[in-house]
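Rotation project, supervised by the postdoc (A.L.). Task for the rotation student: set up a whole-complex structure prediction and record inputs and outputs verbatim in this book. Inputs entered:
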Amino acid sequence: MIEEKKFYLTKEGLERIKKEYKTLRELKLAKTKGESPKVLHSEDLNPEYLAFQEDINFLESRIIELENIIKNAELIKLPRKEKQNIVDLGATVLVETDGQADEFTLVGSLEANPSIGKISNESPVGSALLGRKVGDAVVVSSPIQTTYKIKKVKYHLS
Amino acid sequence: MKDLLDFLIEVGKLKGKKRRGWLIHGIKDAETTSEHIFHLAILVWVLGKNRKLNLEKVIKMALIHDLCEVYSPDLTSYDAAAIKEKGRVTINDVLTIKPITGRPTTNQRKKMEKVKQILEKRAMKKILSKLSPNLKKEINDLWLDYENGITAEGRFVKQADRIINLLQGLEYWKKYGRIKHGLWVRRIKEVIDDPVLLDFVKVVENKFCKKCKH
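Outputs recorded:
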């Protein structure tokens, strides 16, 4: 199932995707090279054939998904030095919200994992923080208003 | 067939497992894990329809996403909020933690996530141990996809899970008033990025939060 859009990825993220793509292609080749199980077992459909077919279908759909990601990938780059106080993709942002300090790293949707502080640039908070700088108070509203005061912006991109 | 029966008996235990997040709030008729699974499966089905998603995979993923909870605790962000900021956190620390109904920091979430992953992987291995290799692989692959948001389906179900929690939390808040609903409504803005799910969040907020205090 294809999502036609740009995929923002860190260098490590893109490498991971390419590695998975390579592995899955090799796996598919190895699976289809040998003899596949027979369709029928006595008069019934052979369960081994069904499992084999399911595996191949899964591999194919994931390979297509990965091809699309690689084709539309946009590498997240370190901004110029004078722009490193501005929040962009790849930035780690120290904020104060609800009177508490917190830290987020802004990533593309594919690498988002809010449980470890990696938030998507397409989430309401991620998109509100983009383009803002140290000292700004970013308000995310509707219906409960939350203010994120930007304390520090850092970049750890390789 | 005997192994499948044993598996089903074990999975059935989720029908009686009340969810920890609601128990922390003293909700008497708290939802069980299987009730939560049922609700999520319906949500991903109706919101996943007519999308570029493999609906069969999405529904199966919702059905198995919390299977590990037969043997692992359903740790919440309130448990994470009680984790010490500095130093190492052991499995035992997490299992004996006294939850706090507040917002955990990213550092606390990271520490919790590490322990949670170990406990859940162990539990998943145990619950799937007697299944045939094909079924074991299918369930495990779906679960890893959900956990790590590998495919579009995994990311969709993971985010939908947060929304179904929000919905249940707001329903309890309306009924009992004990839920820190403001925290939930704020947090959802950090975790959802799927456009259809974001639209749905707005509908949920409009129904429950018109008079929410800022």
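Student's summary: The radius of gyration of chain B is 17 Å.
Supervisor addendum: Chain B has a mean pLDDT of 91.
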